[in-house]
Amino acid sequence: MRLTPEQQDEVAAQRxxxxxxxxxxxxALEEILYEPLPVLDHGFIxxxxxxxxxxxxxxxxxxxxxxxxxxxxxxxxxxxYLMRHRHTTPFEMCEIKYHVKLPIFVARQWIRHRTANVNExxxxxxxxxxxxxxxxxxxxxxxxxxxxQGREEVLEGAAAQRVLDLLRRDAERAYAGYAELLxxxxxxxxxxxxxxxxxxxxxxxxxTLGFYTQWYWKTDLHNLMHFLSLRADPHAQYEIRAYAExxxxxxxxxxxxxxxxxxxxxxxxxxxxxxxxxxxxxxxxGETVMLPPRVARADGGARAAGAVTEPMLRRLPSRRHRRxxxxxxxxxxxxxxxxxxxxxxxxxxxxGHSLGRQAQALHRLPCVLRDAPxxxxxxxxxxxxxx
Length: 387
What we know:
The protein is α+β, with helices and mostly antiparallel strands. The protein contains 14 helices and twelve strands.
């Protein structure tokens, strides 16, 4: 059950009540106000309240009364400017409050973002529901060999079933022990009057991190976008990413112009190092650039090399070594001034294609685009790696 009967009654009452207001409201967000949006197997997010809209950001940026500019295109242009140049204060004028039901291990990751107001369900005062997270089979994966906090190959067949059975069995046994220690039902009535029940603050000790908790989470728009830029990223753990993606959809309803700018200049943008940018400028100017990358040897050492070609990549001993090579220029068997871009599969494929189009348009620089392998980007990579 995603909502308790009491919560369902509360949602029905809230959605059935109309409140006249002089405040700016957003019809698209009002449509889903209070409604639970499903996440994972038993979780959800609900938008409980919000303040401000795109016009409030424009108004704050212009420090004026009224709605600021009169044309939508001007508002969008200003918001794009603020996002592009990281002028964050106007975005802090908008706030939103969510009700979130999530596994405890996801909450422990989430709480690392310390720029929100949080009030969590207390297992000292209330009894937790018998609801725990079990991953879908397609999300059961083995530990990654090159990333200590990631997963790799999906488990299948008997191996996957063994994990699912173990997760369910452990959670069911943990909750049975929890209920026995409490010795009371959800109403507080003793199950066995002859036995004393353990205090709720102690009975919860043996529950696993897969059990669900709930909280109210309120933050401003700037910090919400920072949260989403990290947790909706493909490198984030799937379980918290599922919540971030649901929240990203609410952002699109709430502040559509800001959402568009956020995707353009944050989520789908790439950050280059100063050295990387210098190399791209030289290439766009028509200069031949032969980079000396450090190519790993089988023994774990490194050696200087000339321009790296695709055959050389294939000869590297493992995926771990191949991941170190991202963005290289070469003239081998190609016309001069070729720009070879390995397009990032997991982060932002459009970056490589966009850069290639710009090079061709501005300097008629021949470009060759190559898709990087699915596992080609490590956790810290952001589009184009540093040189």
